[in-house]
Protein: Succinate CoA transferase
Organism: Aporhodopirellula aestuarii
Amino acid sequence: MSLPFPTMSAEQAAELVEHGMMVAMSGFTPAGSAKAVPRAIAVRAKEIHQSGEPFQIRLLTGASTGASVDEHLAEANAVSWRAPYQSSRAMRKRINAGEVDFVDMHLSHLPQSVMFGHFGDIDVAIIEATEVTADGKVYLSTSVGASPTFLKKAKKVIIELNRGQSRDIGDMSDIVIPRRPPNRLSLSMSHPLERIGKRYAEVDPAKIVAIVETDQADELGGFTDSDELSEKIAGYVVDFLSNELASGRIPSSFLPLQSGVGNVANAVTAGVGKSPDIPDFFMYTEVLQPAPFDLMRSGRLRGASSCGLTLLPEQMQEIADDIEFFRDRIVLRPQEISNNPAVVRQLGVIAMNTALEVDLYGHVNSTHVCGQNIMNGIGGSGDFARNAYLSMFVCPSVAKGGKISAIVPLCSHTDHNEHSVHVIVTEQGLADLRGLAPGERARTIIDNCAHPMYRDYLHQYLDKSTAAHIRHDLQHCFDLHRNLMETGSMLA
Ligand code: 0RQ
């Protein structure tokens, strides 16, 4: 049956987007990202710029996106404002050059901020779906993200109907938009796979101004095989979790895992899966990456609640080919539910996220190099870290061949403070900070996690600092960062 909505090309749909508009696009990582229309908007922007006219949009998504969104639009200089998270080289460059205003925020907060109008009106939403019905049911594709809220709030909606994505993926969604406070009900979820919502998002059909048919796979970046360093980090994590299990601090049935983005996080989850000491487990997480997917196939991962499927094309094909196996093992939720702090606390999640740098007391910087230039953003790490039963941060002890130490006297920017950080792990070892006072924390982090080439410096910094509850030398706490900026190396 044909739909009562105008079908058009991506180029025609792009004409509906005007300079200065607030545009919301689907996507939570490259999973479910809009593709054809943003690419056409980038081309349109370049043409308009060539004629001497301005063209820039304000851009909202669920989280990071595929290349068609951030990379293409940033290269075309087509974005003036961006929220809430990105991981694109081109976009990062423009943000750090002061050419794009970027709002870095907790991902669980985004739908509520949209609902309350913190960013103003949404002029157009561009949402990838596997099916849309005449009465406005929208079956989303490989991520849910903030799309249900974008569909509700946008003045106009463009649907990218992706025929290349299996229609069955849409049924994995479990969509609920919490009521506004003070009438918000508590979320009743006692198991990571418990369903509390509908399988589709809803939109007023009168708002759908275009259907654009596509068939492109998600633009997933490459994952490197785990290397020696991430294997070491994974080894420490596995030993630690095994000890926690043996001591009864983690129940014998284990607790749901959350794992952040990136290769180290991927390798750590793979390591947990390989350990004979850790029982089959569930995940309550925001991104399902390739390693946990393989664990699901082997039976080690019993099921996962996520916000998106950040998977390799062959893994997506595997889901399409064996939907009976995956249907009851994966639930895709909106980001205000997948990352909901109350649920994270209720389920007792074990959170594993990645740090750029950690200071002597356990504060974590996940976002800003030397406190200034953004890498990606806080993403969902804060949603999980603050409320997890066990909050772990992992990172290599050094970056750039040793020129940068990940363990520093004082973080140059703080995303997660000492009160939300329980365990730090590098390839040097693991620091369990629970129950430790500041001085003990500092020595444990230096001895267990810092690279040997930085340990003397850090101990001396501590010893020379004025005695206090938290010892610091305000004259010298950023010497490593200053050296890095002046000479390209922290130990100048
Ligand atoms: O630089 O890309 O030039 O080689 O940072 O570092 O070690 O490859 O690690 O890819 O896992 O990224 C924190 C950025 C780590 C990421 C961060 C340089 C290093 C390299 C990348 P190159 P690695 P990863 C779920 C949860 C916050 C959001 C989050 C992140 C590059 O994990 O964005 O967790 N996390 N969200 O050389 C300068 C330092 C550095 C440094 C590393 N101290 N100073 N550069 N690098 N440490 C996701 C969502 O919310 C969707």
The two ends are 70 Å apart (CA to CA). The first strand starts at residue 22 and ends at 25. The first helix runs from residue 10 to 14.
